[in-house]
Amino acid sequence: LTRYRARSPFSAIGGSGDVFESVTDIVTSTRNVLHLDVNCFPVVAHPSHGEEGLEPTNSWMLDFMTHGKLRYLWEDNGLDPTTAYNLIKKYLEAVRKATAVVKTFAGSNAESDI
After folding, report:
1. Residue 2: C-alpha distances to residues 24, 29, 107 (Å)
2. Which of 12, 24, 59, 90 would disulfide-bridge 4, Cβ 3.0–4.6 Å?
């Protein structure tokens, strides 16, 4: 008998207990009182899963930082111009906010160091 607490009773029939294989397994197999979203988990593909276990990722941010051209994001990443612009705009805004926070918490000498 495998004990479980987080997993739903139906998914516990398989005998896994509270050992989950992936983020998707956590989201789909936990009890329904937990409201989880797969996009809320900060994850990096685990090396033990090998090549077939890697989830598809999109390197648009790295590509844009490398070449700085919106038109290449369509060719390399399949992003239409509107989506690419909105993603970059949100990213730059997040960087600006993070910079402001660091300057605020770093103190008065932060202006000269940055």
Report:
1. 21, 15, 54
2. 12
